[in-house]
Fold this sequence. Notes:
Blueprint: H1 2-20, E1 34-42, E2 53-57, E3 60-70, E4 74-82, E5 88-94, E6 109-111, E7 121-123, E8 141-147, E9 155-161, E10 164-165, E11 168-171, E12 177-181, E13 187-191, E14 194-200, E15 206-212, E16 217-220, E17 239-243, E18 250-254, E19 259-268, E20 275-280, E21 286-290, E22 295-301, E23 303-305, E24 312-316, E25 319-323, E26 329-335, E27 337-338, E28 346-350, E29 353-359, E30 365-368, E31 377-380, E32 383-386, E33 392-398, E34 401-405, E35 407-409, E36 415-418, E37 425-430, H2 442-452, H3 460-466, H4 476-486
Parallel strand pairs: 30-37
Antiparallel strand pairs: 1-29, 2-3, 3-4, 4-5, 6-7, 8-9, 9-10, 9-11, 11-12, 13-14, 14-15, 15-16, 17-18, 18-19, 19-20, 20-21, 21-22, 23-24, 24-25, 25-26, 27-28, 28-29, 31-32, 32-36, 33-34, 33-37, 35-36
Amino acid sequence: MKKFVSFLMALAMILLFAVLMPKDIHAGETEWNLVAKKTDIEFPLVYGERVYNFYNTAGYLDVLAPVMISEEEGSYIQYGLIGPDGKYLLPLKDIYGSPLYNTIGDQYLIFDDIICDTHQGYYTLAGEKAFDIDFYEEGAYVGTRRVLPFYNGKAVVQYIVEGNISPIYTIDTKGKILSETSCRGNFYYAGCGLYFYNTNDEDGNQFYAYYDYDGDLQFTLEDHPYASFAGTGVFCEGLAWVRNAQSRLVGFIDTTGNEVIPCMYREVDGFIGGISGVQDAESGDWGAIDMDNEIVIPFEYDMVYGGEDGLIMVKKDGKCGFVDSTNSVILPLEYDNLTSYRNGVAYGLKDGVLYVIKNSQGSVEVENATGSDKIDFSVEGNTVTVSSNVPCKLGYLSEGKYVSVPAKANDDGSYEFTAPDGVTEVVLVVKGDVTGDGAANLGDAARIKAAFRRKLELSALEIFAADVNSDGAANLGDAAQITASFRKKFTIAW
């Protein structure tokens, strides 16, 4: 009997410990080895500060950048889109409005008054207009009034036609009309394929009514005490914030309108990766919660954003970094600006320079530096296997120079390179391809000769590609071998 009682007491202690322990929903799932790659993109000072709006949109970086005219005339805003490789997909351009909604739906962006276009519309990630959404006869169409992001292949648009507001149209990714719905007034994007109206009941009390992209009513907040102005946010991962009209505190509802997290926070961020930053109502400090309203990160920061794979952005004393769900530092707090981690990438700004931050996960990251259409390769861990029949070189940067990794021939005709432990970034080039056109030819030989005669200077990467004879330099011997190879008198070896 005593043994049984002791067993029950021990079991009770275990259960109590499990309940009291902080909830850890992500720890241990990902092995972090973050690599911050410095890019060539710099952002200058404006009014003595670097005031830029960065937003990680499905792995792409939205940039709203102020451009200084003069102290007297002030500044204006430009917009650009940067890809995970740290290069501009859409270079900074002047805009009169702004990109809308900070979202990429079915690989389409939405711009408001970009460049010289006077209406909202859908654009590709290269900044080109995706399709024509003018459904009216010439002379009748005035402009778009509402354009909502795509969700599961559908989007919603509305027009102004000869001074009148059109119905609400549901379109597909080619701009084809799928259906139309009568307009009930001003409507707004709600995320997750929803939009909402700020409408009135019979007594004139305002409330929100949510519709899906097919125009069907999903739910209303008529019986809830939420603020009728700036009282709700966009649904992120199925939850949207709402603000209580009396207390002015914030909580979350789901896509059926049920309050799943009570209005108890001063401010919140949207959920990313199942985590949202929240501001304590009393202290004003920021921490993070999960979707069950369990505290994941304690209230000790100036700002907190959720992130995928349990990587959480925190800011303290003006500097940003990443922690995991145990509040252990994964990326030091040394960045002036840092986005959330999404689709395997984050973006940071430090001393005016942009960094692309990725998790190496024990594998090398290959920059296919030259002739990307000529080299077929695969990566497994720190080994790069090349199946192309054109001789290649693989190397890594050390003290300003590229160090070559020896090639090993396989029985199937492929070659493999194994980078040393600790190396996370490598370059893969065609041997002798100095100009980057994917082949070793007379143009490359001429450039090497000109550099040898000090008429031009080669970069470290160009020297690495030019060194065909593997003597560690770009010289006339390399130019001679490239020329002989081009004339079919010599074969460049692996």
